[in-house]
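Reposting from the mailing list since nobody answered there.

I have sequence plus structure tokens for a pair of proteins and want to know whether others read the tokens the same way I do. The first protein:
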Amino acid sequence: MRVYYEDTDMGGIVYHANYLKYIERARSAWVRDMGIDQNAMRERDGMIFAVRRVEADYLGPAKFDDLLEVETRTNAVTGARLVMEQQVRRGTDLLFQAVVTVVCLNEAGQPARLPANIRLILH
């Protein structure tokens, strides 16, 4: 993804909260690329994904017009949660990394088991 002027702070570097947006977009694309339709999951099963925890490390600044790549990897899949590692790079430079824990919630907003077909896809 490209860094736009609106992504930067007064110092001309990417504002820290925008890295969370970048990794969210990458997770959404990653899930879609695996064939998981989050809209259908919500409508059919009454389930949604929600971020439970983020551990983030800011390692270097991204700047206006940089081209960034976000890599997403599965660390662990259990009955109730998915743990991923995500890294943001500019070329070979690692700028940001996070460990993100995602859970599944039912229509009432209560924790629910990840559907079995999704656990199989994510393994």
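The second protein, same order (residues first, tokens after):
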Amino acid sequence: MAKLVYEIVPHDEGWAYRLNGAYSERFSSHDEALEAARIVVKEMQIADEPVRIAYQDEKGHWHSEISDGADRPDVEIVDVYAGTGDVLSCESGPR
């Protein structure tokens, strides 16, 4: 199962959440960025309908399979700017 780590970070004279180097939109405050990240995490916990997916692996080969929609990633929000260095863990799974 995949694990995603969102970080709450200063960005563009404000705050953002970041995943794998990609930033969210800019938020005016740290708390707004943290709340937005929490909303994203909650949405990721919702199971989806089964779908056929196609993807290319690192060697360039294409694969096709059915995703049952219930395999949700483990998600963690890392907030080292909260003053306490908190790591807020939010594990998701089938709901």
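Reply #1 (J.P.):
I read it the same way you do. The chain has a mean pLDDT of 85.
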